Amino acid sequence: MTTDAGNTPELASLPSELLCQLFTYLPNRKLITEIPLVCQRFNTILNDDKFWSRRIRTEHLIHQPECEVSHPDYQPKRSFHSMRTARSRFRDWETQTVHVALGHSATVDSVLLFKTEQQHKQFCLSGSRDRTIRLWDLENVRNGVEDTWTVAKDETAHLGWIWNMARDETTGNFYTTSWDSTVKSWRITDDGALQNLSSVNVGSAAQCVSATGSPNELVCTTFAKRVAVIDDRSSEIVAEHKLHKRAVIALAVDGNRIYTSSEDRIMMMVDRRQMGRALLFEYSPSCYKSCLSLQRDQLLTSTSDGKVKLYDAKNFNVLQTYTVGSYTRQVQLDHGAHLVMARSARTRYKFSIFSPGTRSRQWGASHELAAEPAKFDYLPSTKTLAIGNGDSSILFCFPPSENAENLAENAENLAENPAENPPNLE
Amino acid sequence: MVRTEKSNKKAKTQKVKLVQNVPVNEHLNRTYILICNDGQQFEADGHTIRHSKVLGLAAKNLEPPENTIQVEKVKGDTMKLVLEWCVNHKDDGPYVSKVGPGLRLPHWDFRWLKEMNNQDLFDLITATNDLQIKQLMDYSCKTVANMAKGKNPEQLRQIFGILTDEEEAELALNEPGPSNA
């Protein structure tokens, strides 16, 4: 590759379409961090939404719904990156590092993964039918002895099964709901203990809880058809509705919009400022929605007859339906993928990943899980998956280690240029 | 096997199809003369140029005994390189494009592209784009991407002869234009 002084070849002399084509061969991380720094032209091309939108369409074959594309927070570059990450993360279930965490003595009905801002450490909170809450340090799970995995626990957290947990990003407090009709708020003290801050009695077994949308306010649902908004500071119920006819089993909150679904096969949306009437309403004759997951304006739901349905959250238009098994337990909508936990006809559960958008294709799946899973949680920033199981264990799935990925890349390079490089794995 | 009306019809339609196939691919066996924009002429046969969509279509539309194709967008030296690659890949089967960092190059292509200097490589990429040769396009882009791997922006500018924004601004100042004239 010689370049003589008077006749420097110019990559910049290539037309822009060719440059775009060239960019598709470079690793994604570089395209976002380093290449835009080379010159103004590259910068413009790489920050152009159309470049990334086209790549999403052609490379991943994803068709984004209108409500996603027209949302003000939508950035094709970020979405492309999330899709690429999700796809490579779950491409092969077997290459993950899986740790089985024992400790609870009954079904672990809720798991919550979070990362602390300051120290960038990963934790997992788990709540179980044995009425205890445990805090797991994931760094210890990856590297340490089993005794060090649980860093805190509360044996008498509730007087009944603990159903769900939610965390407030800004304050770091977390909330738990339980069969004993209470919603409790907790804090993790500086020396790592769990401290109960307050408790609200909501009248009957409390099912779901969510801390997003409005500061100092929680939304919770109960088995007695109630959806209540609780003020965290005064521990009082400030608003509620009883529009459902049966237990309210799924909840998703975004700002002022509260989406709920119940065993009465109705899914509805209310505004928290005016809980008396439902703004959106959907009645399904054959099945109910077991789980709701909301991202921007897309609502991903799992149905009790084994399907996954994607809705436009503004008007409940069905964007897509696909079948995954005989009963879909939970879904999670991530910008990069649809994560689905479903039971196949043969009564075994499988975790699968589908591409986002309106024409989803399966990107990967786990083998049949040995223990019946109750709930899963996925943290995209650290690519960790936690599954709480019916046999009281928790499965922590970490992405294949960085070393393994580098080795694979080096092996590829060696195959391409055998004579040039001496066999030297760095 | 019982010979019924239906099976007879099927046999007839199949027969008709076979006969039709022969004239369509006949052009592959003829030789063509390619004339580049700087006047250089090259001879190539149909199998060699079938990789290029543009040349292939042009060849199909030529009635024998005509056999010259004008290639205005490509200059002679680059055409030589293109033909060298085409001749090497004359007997390849259908190509399935694999976009992205996972693409692997065959040995000959890898070495050949690596030996080329940058200017020839860029001219080759422009020519392949004009002639629409998907396979060569993928391989040459992959080669450029390999050259860019692991380099920080400064090194990239050096290798590819890209000016920093300040240098470009300076050049623009010195060029004759409405404000300088």
From TrEMBL, chain A:
Repeats (WD): which ranges? 101-140
Signal peptide from the UniProt entry = none
* Source organism, top-level taxon: Eukaryota
- Gene3D superfamilies in the cross-refs: 1.20.1280.50, YVTN repeat-like/Quinoprotein amine dehydrogenase
Q: Which UniProt keywords apply?
A: Repeat, WD repeat
Read off the SUPFAM superfamilies from this record.
F-box domain, WD40 repeat-like
Name listed for the protein in its UniProt record: F-box domain-containing protein
From TrEMBL, chain B:
Flavoprotein in keyword set? no
**What SMART domains does its record include?**
Skp1
Q: Where is the SKP1 component dimerisation domain?
A: 134-171
Give GO cellular component annotations, separated by semicolons: cytoplasm; nucleus
Tell me which UniProt keywords the record has, alphabetically.
Answer: Ubl conjugation pathway
According to UniProt, this protein's pathway is: Protein modification; protein ubiquitination
Looking up CDD domains in the UniProt record yields: BTB_POZ_SKP1
Q: Where are the transmembrane segments?
A: none
InterPro entries xrefs: SKP1, SKP1-like, SKP1-like_dim_sf, SKP1/BTB/POZ_sf, Skp1_comp_dimer, Skp1_comp_POZ
Coiled-coil stretches are: none
Report the residue ranges that make up the SKP1 component POZ domain in this protein: 34-90
Q: Which GO terms describe its molecular function?
A: cullin family protein binding
Signal peptide interval: none
The Gene Ontology biological process terms listed for this entry are: protein ubiquitination; SCF-dependent proteasomal ubiquitin-dependent protein catabolic process
Gene3D superfamilies found in the cross-reference section: Potassium Channel Kv1.1, Chain A
Purpose of the protein: Probable essential component of SCF (SKP1-CUL1-F-box protein) E3 ubiquitin-protein ligase complexes, which mediate the ubiquitination and subsequent proteasomal degradation of target proteins. Regulates cell proliferation during embryonic and larval development.
- Please report which protein family the annotation says this sequence is part of: Belongs to the SKP1 family.
- Protein name per UniProt: Skp1-related protein
What is the organism of origin for this protein? Caenorhabditis briggsae
Q: What is the lineage of its organism?
A: Eukaryota, Metazoa, Ecdysozoa, Nematoda, Chromadorea
Give the gene name: skr-16
